Amino acid sequence: MQRICSLNFENNQDYSLRLLLHQDMEPIRRWRNSQIDILRQSSHLSHQEQEAYWKEVVAPSYQMNHPDQLLVAFLEGSQLIGYGGITHIDWERKEGEVSFLLNPEEIESSKNYRKKFGIFLELIKTAAFDKLNLIRLFTETYDIRPDHISELEARGFQLKKRLTDAIEVRGRKVDALIHEYIADER
């Protein structure tokens, strides 16, 4: 396995993935803070917390052969429109959790969101299975995100478990859905 920093990602015509750059951290912090309800994040991130995360977690992971996560920028042309990756990587079991967050300005319609999320899923599956040699991807999604769930399922992710009343969002209990995708199902 090569170091993460030397990975080359597959791209499609208009969209691509690349490793995160330091300059991506501030827009990502703002996006995370504005969409906190759909994330497993309990409080807003400060600039200092985001900077520490870059220095202590993200940047060092690029020099590892088997980091705990692979975070990538999602670009349309050369414009950063989202980010995500594979987190909680278990190299022994060859699996990891897909994460994805789109710039809120890009979420103009459910059709647009689904299109961009679908493209991201195809690119991240290629990275996971062809570059990292993983065999299983999974996701955890709150059931208040029907477009996200529909696109996961349209791209071959199968619902494996429903965690009833897993978390409180905006004053009400919501379920968390666990989906998975196995490499040989491609």
UniProtKB/TrEMBL annotation:
It holds the Pfam family Acetyltransf_4. InterPro entries: Acyl_CoA_acyltransferase. This is N-acetyltransferase domain-containing protein.
